[in-house]
Amino acid sequence: MDDEEFEESMRKVNLIGGIIKDMSSKNEAKSKVGMLRAEELLGNGEKVWDESSLKTVHNGTKINRKAFEDLGKPKDEIPADAAGFMAHVERDAKQRSEAKKKEIKRSDYLKSMGNCEYRKGNYEKALIYYNQAIDVRKDSCVLFTNRALAKINLGLMDEVGEDCDRALRLNERSLNAVLYKAEALWWLGDIQTAKELLKTALKTHPDQTKRIQDYQNKLSNSR
């Protein structure tokens, strides 16, 4: 499961859970609020709600079974009562949260192995570990900048820019991403664009002026 799918699933879980909880409340006013929220969503055409999929149960509460099916649950696993449905939603949210934690733990382990190999100068092995870490988790800016640096050391300059761009989409203030992209462009012969990136970095990271200038001096002396 990638990060976008996880966030969308959690959004649905939170949305459905909140409304079902209100609708099944013993407090009449709160229950009415829940029904109004459900009707509002139905009126706005919210995708997680489907009029034809609503089912009336013994206590008069309506439950959107289609929404749970959208989360990948088989029909026979969806409880018919509000309390059971709510418990199922909460259990599903917990399972997804635990799965995400495992992804992060596995990714962090692979990243640490990659860092270890990088420090030894084993850039090929480091790249393999970073690739594996990114396969597990695609929402880490650091993983993409680490992989970009490994590629620089392997001379894979034409692949560096994409990793840096992905890192910047995750964290637009990543200085490493800017520096590594500038270095790759420099070696690819696009020195003007590289200089422009470094010039912009000086404006956006005034506290890192010395580092940026040292980086540019290193590039200038390398050709």
Automatic annotation (TrEMBL):
Keyword Repeat assigned: yes
Residue stretches of each TPR repeat: 107-140
Gene3D superfamilies: Tetratricopeptide repeat domain (1.25.40.10)
Cited InterPro entries: TPR-like_helical_dom_sf, TPR_2, TPR_rpt, TTC12
UniProt cross-references to Pfam families, sorted A to Z: TPR_2, TPR_6
SMART domains: TPR (SM00028)
GO biological process entries: axonemal dynein complex assembly; sperm axoneme assembly
Signal sequence residues: none
PANTHER family: TETRATRICOPEPTIDE REPEAT PROTEIN 12
Name of the protein in its database record: Uncharacterized protein
Phylogenetic classification of the source organism: Eukaryota, Metazoa, Ecdysozoa, Arthropoda, Hexapoda
